Amino acid sequence: MRASLVIVGAGPRGTGLIERIAANAPELYAGSGLDIHLVDPHQPGAGRIWRAAQSPLLWMNSHAEDVTMFTDETVAMEGPVREGPTLHEWAGIDGRVFADRQLQGSYLRWVHEQAVAALPPDVTVHHHPRRALRISGSREGRQQVWLEGRPRPLLADLVVVAVGHLDAELDDQQGELAAYARTHGLVHLPPDFTADSDLSALRPGEPVLVRGFGLAFVDLMVLLTEGRGGRYEGDTYVPSGQEPVLYVGSRRGVPYHSKIGYDWSGERPPLPRFFGPVQVRELLDRPHGFDFGRDVWPLVEKELGFAHYHRLFTAHQERTAMSWADFEEKYAAGSGAEIQALVASAVPDPADRLDLAALDHPLDGVRYGSFEEFQEGLRGYVEADLRRRHDDRNSPDLAVFLGLLSVYGQLIRLGGIGPWWHGFFSYLASGPPGPRLRQLLALSRAGIVKFLGADMTVTAADGVFRAAGATVPGAFVEARALVEARLPEPTVKRASDPLLRELAADGAAETADGLLRVDPVDGRVLDRAGRPHPRRFALGPFTDGRTPGAFTRPRTGGPAFRQNDATARAALRFLAELSSRAAA
User: Fold this and answer.
1) Given the DSSP bridges, would you call strands 464-468 and 457-461 parallel, antiparallel or unpaired?
2) Which parts of the sequence are annotated with region: Disordered (predicted)?
3) Among the residues of 318-418, which ranges form H helices?
4) Is 198:187 a contact under the CB 8 Å cutoff?
């Protein structure tokens, strides 16, 4: 009997897994054939998010040269490296371009075709354009994967759930706001993928409250301006007259930091230095567990500081007052207040010192006397951010970015990465392209976008939504429309996808933040007793093994590649053993 593997989700993660199966099969699988069943209502490769049917105005959030689906020698994995072209090499475009998502979808479809073609001749891939509803079956036997509109299940020796980002049911607060909107004839758009939201109810000239200042907001901004016929003439926005007025705020009250606009040169910081495999193993071996704030964050902070100061001392030594050798020795031995004192004596300009708390809360304690003053003030903040992120005199920022990637790779090994860290990483390292922030400035000057400030609150009363922020005390804005500009939280219990809820009901464990717990070694789903399921795996942002960003930068280690390889090898070993037993 031929072995059967079901992969639920045929987007980039499912494709990456097939690529690793193809790479590892010659070594690990000599069974009598294998059927791989891909379950996804969307086209394999691109999946839902990168589908062709979306606005060409929507860009990727990375330079084309920073997007690859192929492994390289920096990936710490057991399987063989199979190199391939980055997006810009494949498409023949400038590597510094921010390609549109339709082009990325074409690249992903090509990668999928290449991965399938590289499979051994006796491995066959079947695509089922349906949703998976649930998985049943004992730990010891074949699994049944039930599909929408199909009376019989797919039989699987192994199942890998790689569904990517999730839709979610409304939480209590969102539910109350939605109910108020229905009762009073208001518009409430809950967290969603902006490309999938129906924006037609947001009417020209009317105020719209927008909660969220990250990438979902950027997409919203584009679709409601250029998407409605507006255009840019240099640094000036020329309205079409079809735009609403967007009042935007968030917890931080500022947009994510701009993508860095220069290339790395010279020596890279030797990472990991203070938070690597040794420290991860020590944390995992603690009999009573560990606390992120007490035990992990000091290591993260020291690692990021090391990356920052290594670059400052080696590339901009004229701005330091000590030799790198002396600084490194004292930095390695110190902690807390000792490091602060060391930095104060060795780095004269406070602007050259790394202050993670200030970066995370840039408007803490900042107050403006009027709404109009704050508009000018935040435009100045964005302009300063653009200057800094496009000037290689500030190259320690790029070193910190490399440090964040290194840290994320280690946190995945620990498991249990919560939403705070993921949000902090995205804010610093996964912000919008510089041109998008320049468009934001033009829209602000044109009066199309207005800023509400930090600690934004939204209430519903007197037949309207009312928003206020802490940055301009006493100021508030009323509107009949509210958009929650962020992705749904990837919690298992609130996922609209019944498959994940059924997994939890069947005994799969969740973290305190609602993510699915998986074995950090190979991605097997863990039950509430911490036991890995022998036949079920999960990969993606709904797990506590979530990785940074949607795609991997070449030659940065690629935690997602390492995970894909480990899962593929574990699956192939399991299937090979099954085949061997069947033949005996």
Assistant:
1) antiparallel
2) 537-562
3) 324-333, 337-346, 356-360, 371-389, 396-414
4) no
Q: Label residue 579 by pLDDT band (50, 70, 90).
A: confident
Domains (range + CATH), the chain: 3-168+490-583 (3.50.50.60), 169-223+230-237+250-256+432-453+478-487 (no CATH), 277-370+391-429 (no CATH)
pLDDT (0 to 100) of residue 417: 66
DSSP label at 220?
A: H
Digit-coded pLDDT (tens) for 21-73: 999 999 999 877 999 999 999 999 999 999 998 999 999 999 999 999 999 99
Residue 314 CB burial class (10 angstroms; 0-12, 13-18, ≥19): middle
| Residue 120 CA to its chain's centroid (Å) | 33
Cα–Cα dist 415/471, whole Å: 36
- Report the C-alpha gap between 349 and 497 in whole angstroms: 51
Query: What CA–CA distances, in Å, run from 470 to 253, 453, 474?
Result: 9, 7, 8
Give a three-class secondary structure readout of 484-498.
ECCCCCCCCCCECCH
- Mind giving me the DSSP string for 224-262? TTGGGT-EEETTEEE--S---EEEEE-SS-SPPPPPP-S
Answer for the pair 114, 18: CB distance below 8 angstroms, yes or no. Answer: no
Q: Give strand pairing partners of 52.
A: none
Please give the backbone phi and psi of residue 106, each rounded to the nearest 5 degrees, phi first.
Answer: -65, -40
Q: Please report how many Cα atoms fall inside a 13 Å half-sphere around the Cα of residue 196, on the Cβ side.
A: 14
Say how many CA atoms lie within 13 Å of 97 toward its Cβ: 14
CA 408 to CA 415: how far, in whole Å? 10
pLDDT of the residue at 166: 79
Across 14-118, the runs of DSSP E, i.e. the strands, are: 34-39
Identity at 390, one-letter amino acid code: H
pLDDT at 584 over 70: no
**What whole-number distance in Å separates Cα of residue 298 and Cα of residue 519?**
25
Q: How far apart are CA 186 and CA 464, in angstroms?
A: 7
* 556: amino acid identity, one letter: T
Q: What is the pLDDT of residues 278-318, one digit of tens each?
A: 999 999 999 988 999 999 999 999 999 999 999 999 999 99
C-alpha–C-alpha distance, residues 227 and 59, integer Å: 13
CB-neighbour burial class of residue 47 (10 A; exposed 0-12, middle 13-18, buried 19+)? buried
**Residue 29, token pair as written in the block:** 């699988």
**What is the H or E stretch that residue 482 is in?**
strand 481-484
Q: How confident is the model over 317-335, as pLDDT tens digits?
A: 999 999 999 999 999 999 9
The CA–CA distances, whole Å, from 312 to 309, 323, 425 equal 5, 11, 21
pLDDT 10s digits, 121-146: 999 999 999 999 999 999 999 999 99
Contacts of 278 (CB under 8 A, 6+ apart): none
Q: Which of helix, strand or coil describes residue 84?
A: coil
